[in-house]
Write a structure and sequence with these properties.
Layout (H helix, E strand, L loop, with lengths): L2 H13 L2 H20 L7 H28 L4 H6 L1 H7 L4 H35 L4 H28 L3 H15 L10 H12 L6 H8 L3 H9 L28 H22 L4
Helix pairs in contact: 1-6, 2-3, 2-6, 3-6, 3-7, 3-11, 6-7, 7-8, 7-11, 7-12, 9-10, 11-12
């Protein structure tokens, strides 16, 4: 059995998950309903579709991590708990083959799910408006895949570190809370916490650049910024804090989102593989 065989076998097993497909089907129906109900007031057909996908991006920011985590949180932890990982390693496979094979298969499953969601939304949008801004749709799809891939990487890495289903579930839920919800819940968001520590506890003067830099560490914020790279200028949205008379520095521009994605892909995978390589199986 080779890396390719592991990937194909795991992909086949993962795509048969009823729970995963139930989640993807519900999200596909949700995107279809959003596309059906969205209407642009005094906008042309193409501009309406552009604004529709920009609006759906806000929904995807919260939902795509769920798809990725549900698809990936048991990738390796399930094999360790059942003892299947010993069988895989008993064949001429290395731990690297198992790790990369699981990662590739879960990325494949999530890609199919996101493609389904975009296909249903696009079909409804075209049927309703008779226009298809290909560049925006393809760009949003690419950015969404990159965003979801971050959470696949996080989930597979956490799955490689833990050895039990309960811990894998806790790790997946915890990562969603820390990387997504903690940046959107009013009253307890990271921005408020950093501002409180910086100004109240430490007594420093307000530093908006610092607060924005901390916010930018979230994949969710990076996703929102990356969407500005693929939509027309008049549809771009302000993501970071920009009080009056404040100019956002260039190093916090939309392009930095790609660097944030790269870090969130590389670091968890490196740590996950390192821990899996040294784990007692």
């Amino acid at each position: 059995m080779t890396l390719r065989d592991i990937t194909r076998k795991d992909f086949t097993a993962a795509r048969r998950s009823r729970g995963l497909w139930a989640v993807m089907t519900l999200l596909g129906l949700l995107t279809t309903l959003i596309a059906f109900g969205f209407s642009g007031y005094r906008l042309g057909p193409e501009e309406t579709v552009v604004r529709l996908f920009r609006t759906m991006g806000g929904v995807f920011g919260l939902l795509l991590p769920i798809v990725a985590l549900v698809a990936s949180y048991m990738a390796i932890a399930g094999e360790r708990e059942s003892g299947g990982v010993k069988f895989l390693l008993g064949l001429p496979n290395s731990r690297r083959d198992v790790f990369l094979g699981k990662l590739a298969s879960r990325l494949g499953v999530v890609t199919i799910g996101i493609a389904f969601m975009f296909a249903t939304a696009t079909a409804m949008a075209v049927a309703r408006n008779g226009a298809l801004p290909v560049g925006v749709v393809v760009g949003m799809f690419a950015v969404s895949l990159l965003y979801a891939a971050v959470f696949v990487a996080v989930a597979v890495s956490l799955s490689a570190i833990v050895a039990e289903r309960s811990r894998a579930i806790a790790a997946a839920v915890g990562s969603y809370f820390l990387l997504v919800m903690l940046y959107v819940i009013p009253g307890v968001s990271v921005a408020l916490l950093v501002r409180f520590v910086h100004q109240t506890l430490l007594g420093f003067e307000p530093n908006v650049d610092l607060y924005n830099a901390v916010l930018y560490t979230s994949p969710l914020i990076a996703y929102r910024k990356a969407m500005n790279l693929v939509v027309p200028t008049d549809v771009e949205r302000q993501v970071l804090q920009q009080p009056p008379d404040y100019t956002l520095p260039g190093y916090l521009g939309d392009e930095l989102s790609l660097v944030v994605f790269a870090v969130w892909l590389a670091v968890p995978l490196a740590l996950g593989y390192w821990r899996f390589e040294g784990a007692d199986l």
